[in-house]
C-alpha cells in the first residue's frame, strides 16, 4: 500500500552486502558419545487407567484417569454423596469404588467439605430500618 516502504524493502545496499559477504560461520557438532550399559534399559512405567463414573456430567470431565487418582468432577461427586448419605458412602466404600487408598480417602473426607447454600424465605426477612 505504501510505495516508499516497498521501495526501501526492495533496494539493495552495497555496503551491507559487502559486510555480509565477509561473515563466515563454521559450526561443528561434538561427536555423539553413547554409553552402552550392557543391555540395561530404563524401566517403563505403564499406568493402569480406569473409566470414570460421571453419569450426567460425563461431557465436562476427562474420560480416563490413572488408577489411584480421581478427577475433579468425581471428587465433588463423592464428597457430595458422603455428605448426603454418610452411612452408605463410607470411606471404605469410596476407596473401593474409586480405587483409592483408604488413608487418602479419610483425609479427603476430613479436610474437604462441600458448601451448602441455604436461602431464607423472603417473608421471614426483616427490613433494616435506617436510623
From TrEMBL:
Belongs to the NDUFAF4 family. One of its GO terms (cellular component) is mitochondrion. InterPro entries: NDUFAF4 (IPR009622). It comes from Crypturellus soui. GO terms for biological process: mitochondrial respiratory chain complex I assembly. This is NADH dehydrogenase [ubiquinone] 1 alpha subcomplex assembly factor 4. Binds calmodulin. Interacts with NDUFAF3. The gene is Ndufaf4.
